[in-house]
Design brief:
By secondary structure, the protein is of the alpha/beta class. It contains eleven helices and eight strands. It has a single domain, classed as Vaccinia Virus protein VP39 (Rossmann fold, 3-Layer(aba) Sandwich), CATH 3.40.50.
Amino acid sequence: MSRADNQPDWDTLAEKFDLWAPHIAPVGEALLAALNAQPGDHILDLASGTGEPALTLAKQQPRVTITGTDAAAGMVQVAERKAREQSLDNLRFQTMAAEALSFPDNHFDHLSCRFGVMLFADPEAGLQQMLRVLKPGGRCALAVWDTLKGMTGVYWTQQVFKDRIPESEQPAVDKIVSMSDGVLEGLLEKVGFSAIETQLNCFAYHFADFEAYWQNSVDSAIMKQQLDALPPGKLDEVKCAFAELAQPYQTDAGLVIPHEYRLVVAIK
Ligand SMILES: C[S@@+](CC[C@H](N)C(=O)[O-])C[C@H]1O[C@@H](n2cnc3c(N)ncnc32)[C@H](O)[C@@H]1O
């Protein structure tokens, strides 16, 4: 898939993405509760990445059938391997952009998408496709990041890199926050969804200390493009800048980094 907007290279980091999985698990739980799948339902999980929340739903509800899709083939391969390893036969994954779903009209009972819509090349086209493939009365449950102010880790990334690397290498912050402040709800209404409801939720990344957070960030390659763009010898300076921003979030229980997101549910 194109990386013109400086999203992380999902294919390359596919094997490392799950370093974040325990930290974003609470969002998956909230999303699945809102989805409220019932035995016999066929669910579409869009931008499933390495398989969440599709895998969790498949384990929790063996009588629900799930199709997970993602634009990045590398992420889909990891998701497929996990499904095989866990002997889950009620879900399958396919490489497919959200804007070009190959499913028939009125095909799925409900659909979910965790932290995908704001990254779509064309979110409105993706939402139109969601509406098309849902059965009448079907529910979509979508988690998107909210404003930069509430996304502590992304805010740090923006602050640290803004004056240190060229504009062309900056993280895709505008894209990440592009569905905040009611934008997603407006688009859902525009394409024809109704009964749109939003919860503004908060969760936190928990790390033993700053070192553990830094190691996770480097190992997961989520900032690879930005770190690669640094002038030689600047890595320690960048690490210190992150450590300074993280300092207020150090607690007796370790480093606790709060994040806000929007959980939006709408009906076809
Ligand atoms: C932050 S990851 C989320 C993955 C997974 N849903 C999770 O929460 O663990 C975002 C995913 O969106 C996918 N993505 C980005 N643009 C897409 C598009 N236009 N269509 C489908 N997937 C897309 C990426 O490939 C990536 O796997």
